[in-house]
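Changelog-linked ticket: flavin mononucleotide example.
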Amino acid sequence: MNVIYKDTNSDEWYFANNSYILSETDDKGIITYANDIFCEIAGYTLKELMGEPHNILRHPEMPKIAFKGLWDDVQKKGFWTGIVKNLRKDGAYYWVHATVLRRINLKGNVSYLSIRTTPLRADVEACTTLYKELKDKE
Ligand SMILES: Cc1cc2nc3c(=O)[nH]c(=O)nc-3n(C[C@H](O)[C@H](O)[C@H](O)COP(=O)(O)O)c2cc1C
């Protein structure tokens, strides 16, 4: 059983420090795999997630430029790391430190893997301010 819990004073959810939230997508960002804790923290069943675009988790406070950076970096450099605020199915949210990797199999097919851990609180606070500034400029 994975450990997730909610802040009693806000809509923020947390997960255990030693957990890894994993998902895989195809080359278009369509979810092809999610582990148990991904489903628990996002509030969806695996069945609901499979075949859906990964922006199903997009939080409205996330600036467009963050995801432009993600896609530019994974396509050009093969990896991206950043802090993301994700939307749960019930409208609440959780922050992650995400590393997205590009993979190419022997047939040349591209897929992506994201590995998420608990972010440092200082990074969450810095990104809350930064993302608001970036969002206000959109
Ligand atoms: C492997 C992988 C994992 C992703 N994980 C997330 C995620 O957890 N949350 C999120 O909002 N977007 C995630 N994205 C980015 C989405 O595909 C999408 O670009 C983003 O949600 C912005 O949505 P939009 O492109 O419709 O504006 C991920 C992309 C990839 C390739």
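Closing comment: Example verified and attached. The helical segments are 36-42, 46-49, 64-76, 121-136. The chain has four helices and seven strands.
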